[in-house]
Amino acid sequence: MTVDKKLDQEKLRAQADAAARKRYRQHKRSRRPKRTIDRYKPIIRAVAAVLAFVALLAISRCSGAAEGHREAESAIRDKLAAETRLGAMEDERNAWETSATILAGDIEKLESDVASLTEALERWESKALEASGTIAAQKIEIESLKARIKQQSNNEVKSSTVSKASYDTSGVERWRALVQKYFGANTDAALSVMRKESGGNPRIQGPVLESGVRCAGLFQQHPDYWPKRIARAEKKYGRTFSHDIFDPEANIAASAVLSSGGTDWSHWSVKP
User: Which of 43-47, 143-147, 181-185, 217-221 has the least mean pLDDT?
Assistant: First the structure.
């Protein structure tokens, strides 16, 4: 007998033994009576399955409720945070609007100030042009004044070279103190002209002129020019004088101004 045949036979015997043992177990099980509990096992398994399903469903619902509660709390917190941010943004917007309003007012004020400064600048430019013209005129007047001062100095030098003894002041010495008050160093020359014009008589009048008037007073002032001459004297000495042409001090003061302090006697026909 070959090895393969032996193996086949052993395999067949083993299968037959297994089948016999199976039949025996089935026969033995069929003869054993069933217990009461075994009859309820399917029901118990079904109830257990239902309870397990209910428990799982409850657990799921509880988990869902807890999760929903957490989500609701998170949503409330997010809402409060959003409202807080919105309030802050609203406050910031109000602050910016207030700042914008203030800035707009400042801009209007600055525009008004710029307009005022522009007008002031235009006025100052106009005044500067006027002042430049005035300055030019004043320069011309200053040059003229310098020439007059130089001429006056020359006249003073000339007059200083003439001795006092050459002036005849007889009959008018009583007016020396008043004349010296306005003529200073040229008092003798002024007294000499006074002696020739009026002889020291403050009420004297000269001959009738072609215009029908008569010169009057110590220095024989012309009535037509008298108002302007006494006004010049008041301006020069900073005081008021009598406007009476026969008033001695007023006549002397006006004559002092007209003769530049006794250095220019060109307005008189007589000389010292």
Answer: 143-147
Dump strand ranges (E) for the chain: 205-208, 214-216
Q: pTM score > 0.85 for this model?
A: no
Question: Largest Cα–Cα distance of the chain, in whole Å?
Answer: 206
CA 71 to chain centre: 59
**Dihedral class, residue 244 (left if φ above 0, else alpha if ψ from -120 to 50, else beta):** beta
Domain ranges of the chain: 168-258
Number of other residues whose CB lies within 10 A of the CB of residue 155: 17
Task: Give, in order, the Cα–Cα distances in Å from 15 to each of 8, 29, 127.
Answer: 11, 21, 141
Distance, in Å, from the CA atom of 68 to the CA atom of 149, rounded to the nearest integer, reads 113
> Lowest mean pLDDT: which of 4-8, 29-33, 140-144?
29-33
CATH class entry, domain 168-258: mainly alpha
Residue range 89-95: average pLDDT?
Answer: 87
Query: How far is residue 143's CA from residue 137's CA, in Å, rounded to a whole number?
Result: 10
**Long-range contacts of 111-119, Cβ-Cβ distance < 8 Å, separation of 24 or more:** none
Residue 200 has pLDDT above 70, yes or no: yes
What are all long-range contacts of 81-90, with beta carbons under 8 Å and residues at least 24 apart?
A: none
